[in-house]
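Readers of this paper often ask what the protein records in our data store actually look like. Such a record has a labelled line for the sequence and another for the backbone structure tokens. The tokens are whole numbers drawn from a learned vocabulary of local backbone shapes. We quote a single record here, exactly as it is kept in our systems:
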Amino acid sequence: MNTKMKMHITNIYGQSPKSTAMISQNMVASVAQELGFKEIGIYSYPIKTDTYQEMSKRIDGMIASVSFGDLVVLQLPSWNGTEFDELLIKKLKSYKRIKLIVFMHDFIPLMFQNNAYLMAKHIELFNLANSIILPSNAMADKLISYGLKSKIIIQGMWDHLNNIDIIPKRFTKKFYFAGSPKRFPFVKNWTFSNQLEVFSDQPIDFDSENNSNVIFSGWKNDFSLLNALTDGFGLVWSENISNQAEKEYSHLNLSYKLSTYISAGIPVIINRGISIEKIIEDNGLGFVASSLSEANEIIDNFSANKYAEMIKNVENFAPLLRTGYFTKKALIDSIGTAFMKKEAYRDYL
């Protein structure tokens, strides 16, 4: 390893403060800085306004601090488009002895059905990395089936940094959900007996008379959201919508809102089949349900004593997320594997 090697990590800016994509990248970069990484800022902008030459110059400015033999963690997607990500990767790979690690937050060809045609291009680009951090084993298996050959580290779970004072939780038969009704339309058709509080603005087409058990509390920043989760259960639920097979995609990726709930100290109810199902069940952090009616029934039959036991499980686990454990481990492991020969990597696995 180069003793003069510098470590860098990309981080996006310029999106809406409500953007989970930006919030999660900012969090990863914050944890990486604790490990000695220097930040490469990437501002979100309409790249179609640039010529190829202008975009090339823009990227040169972003990576001006990178030198031969350095290590770069590239958080992807940049949300500036595949053309931008491709040029950024190829410019970084032009540096001699550079080590490139991809920290994959979302995989565009699987996330959006109309981008499936980009699969081969993304696999080709990711194979230029020395190692790649993927959210789950299921995602790894899927991408390997499409030809991914880079050394893989599994993230396993999102962290959610949190140093606020956690107040004791009350047992309430209630669901919380942080998400947009446009992406998660089930919140507009909630006819169940237990209340659902949604941290989003109320949509214009919401029928309040027939969905009286739904409360829209508006979007909240991280501090306000963590403080608002004082009781009940955090709901993690996906359904397919136009151009996005959300339910199937949840089997491959990780839910940031799930980690928000646990970091705040409340248990979760998740839809069966999501990638993190085993961690939730093995650690007693919540329940798995096959339908929203089953989820509602679980809450109906729950007791205060059972809730207190589950809160203890959550509080035993939550410090991992609040201190960035999963992010630190993924970054450290990816650095190690980036320098391993393939034979040593196979033994490491």
